[in-house]
Write a structure and sequence with these properties.
- It is a single chain.
- With 325 residues, the protein is of the alpha/beta class.
- The chain has 10 helices and 13 strands.
- Strand 12 and strand 13 form a beta hairpin.
- The radius of gyration is 18 Å and the shape is globular.
- The relative contact order is 0.19.
- The structure holds acetyl coenzyme *A.
- Acetyl coenzyme *A binds next to helix 2, helix 6, helix 7 and strand 12.
């Protein structure tokens, strides 16, 4: 029996031009570089001024397609994970497909799963590829979180940033074993009982405005550490691998203390964990694909490396994936 795998064949990212440092923030709210760095690990973040989500996501998608050695007309599916669309409708994915010149008829849609959005998108695209519905897919995560942050609230405004990342997946014959290259396992979760812990203060049908982000930081922290570690363990088991097989752990980039607790629970050495939150902040759905693309560009990855992705965010939603490059 033929077994189809979704192989990662291209990476791309894009960051808005403006950089906002912790010192800059200390002139906007009562905070300091020392407080932000010691509590979160964040030093700076990019902020969209003229750029919109479709602009940075479109650039990331275009870069990923080029990196794969393909053209926009080769793409059969586009999924964008984002909670900060250009317009309420149509989807930002459709706008990108139009701007880049994807073939007419190619499905393109957004998904909303907050910081887990990219892992959700990866799960959907991988399933469609393995079912034989599409051959080549682009999945992206992109956010302009600066547009839904309360810039007077020091509890939240220091945490977030803007950016976009994308990867190209392509169907390739595999054996069904864990030695295959491509996506080896994915698992996504949600628990709506925790809806109020992390949310915006409004939305289209309730207040007719997107609102601003509010959160119970301690509650988020507590759940994030457990969910991120558990999702990683589940997907490793489902892939038929163990912690010792991990070459790179790529966790959602929210806070260095969360990442470090997850790393310790998984008993992984520090040099196997990708950290980009120091210069990106928390970019929600963009954080994992940004980390993937930057690491690829730096030449960190080699063929055959096992990547474990793990994410958690508003909803709560969470999930993980194991990929062999
Ligand atoms: N600068 C200075 N002081 C601040 C700031 C700031 N930017 N923000 C809060 N404080 C103050 C608080 O007001 C509080 O003061 P008080 O004691 O007088 O009331 C004090 O610092 C301590 O606040 P705590 O909430 O106890 O600080 P804590 O050590 O828990 O860190 C943090 C707060 C960083 C938000 C932490 O709870 C956290 O990381 N939570 C996870 C949240 C997260 O990453 N969310 C992102 C979205 S979810 C996700 O992506 C998984």
């Amino acid at each position: 029996m033929m077994f189809i795998r979704s192989k990662l064949i291209g990476f791309g990212h894009c960051l808005p031009a403006k950089i906002l440092t912790n010192d800059d923030l200390s002139h906007m709210v009562e905070t300091s570089d020392e407080w932000i760095r010691s509590r979160t690990g964040i030093r700076s973040r990019h902020i969209a001024e003229t750029e919109t989500t479709s602009v940075i996501a479109g650039q990331a998608v275009s870069n990923a397609i080029k990196d794969a050695g393909l053209k926009p007309e080769d793409i059969d599916l586009l999924i964008l994970a984002s909670i900060t669309p250009d317009n309420t409708t149509p989807s930002t994915a459709v706008k990108i497909a139009g701007n880049l010149g994807f073939r007419s008829g190619v499905p393109a849609f957004d998904i909303s799963a907050a910081c887990s959005g990219f892992v959700y998108a990866l799960t959907l695209a991988d399933n469609m590829i393995r079912l034989g519905q599409v051959k080549t897919a682009v999945i992206a995560g992109a956010e302009c979180l600066s547009k839904i942050v309360d810039w007077q609230d020091r509890n939240t405004c220091v945490l977030f940033g803007d950016g976009a990342g994308a990867v190209v997946l392509q169907a390739e014959a595999g054996t069904g074993k864990s030695s295959d290259r491509g996506v080896l396992s994915t698992h996504i979760y949600a628990d709506g009982a925790l809806y109020d812990c992390l949310k915006t203060t409004g939305g289209v049908s309730s207040t007719q405005s997107p609102g601003v982000v509010t959160m119970d930081g301690k509650e988020v922290f507590k759940h994030a550490v457990v969910s991120l570690a558990e999702a990683a363990e589940v997907v490793l088991q489902e892939a038929g691998l163990s912690k010792s097989n991990i070459d790179w752990l790529i966790p959602h980039q929210a806070n260095v203390r969360i990442v470090d607790s997850v790393r310790q629970r998984l008993e992984i050495p520090e040099d196997k964990v990708i950290i980009t939150l120091d210069h990106h902040g928390n970019t929600s759905a963009a954080s994992i694909p940004l980390a993937l693309s930057e690491s690829h560009q730096k030449g960190l990855f080699k063929d055959g490396d096992v990547l474990v992705l793990t994410a958690m965010g508003a909803g709560f939603t969470w999930g993980g994936a194991v990929i062999r490059l």
